[in-house]
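ok trying this again, last paste got cut off
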Amino acid sequence: MKRHTTLSAICLALLFTATAHSDEKGFTPLFNGKNLDGWVQHGGKAEYEIVDDTIVGTSVPKTPNSFLCTEKIYGDFELQVDFKVDPLLNSGIQIRSNVYDEDKVLETKNADGKEKKIKVPAGRVHGYQVEIDPSDRAWSGGIYDEGRRGWLNNLADNKAAQKAFKQNEWNHYRIVCRGNSIKTWINGVPAADLKDDLTSEGFIALQVHGVGNHPEKVGKQVSWRNIKIKELKPEKKK
């Protein structure tokens, strides 16, 4: 019996190891740990620097939201990233986002199905944002439509996801975009589950939120590390 138990434990360990390695296959780092090659800043003038294999964003006064954006465009993908944020600072991770050189009008629909037009100013980063929210509201992992429609999937009714956020510690996001589906997990707990087809592709960006007239929020930081992506093949239509 003891021999059987030992063999079972070994088999389980090997299975776990194989699964873990399988999950890692296909991922590509978005950050090389040395410099910001492949990234470009849009929006505000927040400071981005590299500290110990980590991208650190620092808030500055008198500037709008700042975004460090990938130069590459992504459509269907799985993104994983660790982040840590100061309790006074709001942040987020943009996905399928864009910025235009000229003003542009987007056509969408209201919740009641009526046609709606949204004007996006030139230079304005806009698109889906996976919220980083250290406030008491705790909506980290919810989906906000930056520069367009506002909240699309908050976490008001998802207590488990609210409780999953760890204040003053590293947190982990898993974000999966496929077709019109966007799903998020925070520290392994399901968070947002959105169906929306307004934008099918765009860049990924790291946000440092503007601090407005709040001097106590100046100089606060948000950090990201272990940023990796796996591009997914579009699902076949039935």
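PB: full thing came through this time. The longest strand covers residues 221-231.
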